[in-house]
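Intended use. Records like the one below are meant for learning the mapping from a protein sequence to its folded structure. Do not use them to infer anything beyond what is encoded.
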Amino acid sequence: MMFAMTTSDEEFGQAVASHRATQRMSQKDLAAALTQAGMKVDAPAVSRIEKGQRAVRLAEALKIADVLGREIGDLVGAKMTAQERMGAAFNNVEWRGNQLAESSARFAEELMNAGVLFGEDPSLLDALDDLAVGRPRDSSDFPRWYAGVVRERVWQVRRERVGQGSYTVYPVAADKPGLLEAITAVADTALLSGGEYEALEESGVMVMGVLDTVADEVKHRPTF
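Structure written out for the chain above:
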């Protein structure tokens, strides 16, 4: 599902120029930051965007917003209708969901790679002995062990901040109906069950992962 937005290139460009100026960035600075973020542009290209002379795809607009430290609605919301604002919010959710799925797939891959390493040399597991959660039982236990370390680390940081009087507001997924369910559902799209993976391998079919699907979707996102 995708919502098209009718904000003109000129209006979008003016918003980019305004927020860039607020950040005290030159067009060259913005071009460099965008290139580093994966959107290869130079200063003249930024100038054309700000003048409304270069159409911007949604994926590019989201990247520009990220680099400027803004939400996409800050760049396209000035003259949007309520339905267009809703569309922009939905597009933000889908884009972030795709990023979460991609990160989840890569995170799972790194967990598996680490497990293989520890399986080849179980003595390495001794170095993972943690005061709070102990050590992994074996290489296959590494993901569960790491989850425990992360949870303990988060609580430790929170305790330290409270002790220092530095109070931080954290979003608690369990207290937001449906939020944890949505996050888990998105992350799950990046993973196959063991049975599914083995069946695909046995059939000789080349697996098209979520990352490829996301990349293909980005190519077909509408421009403004």
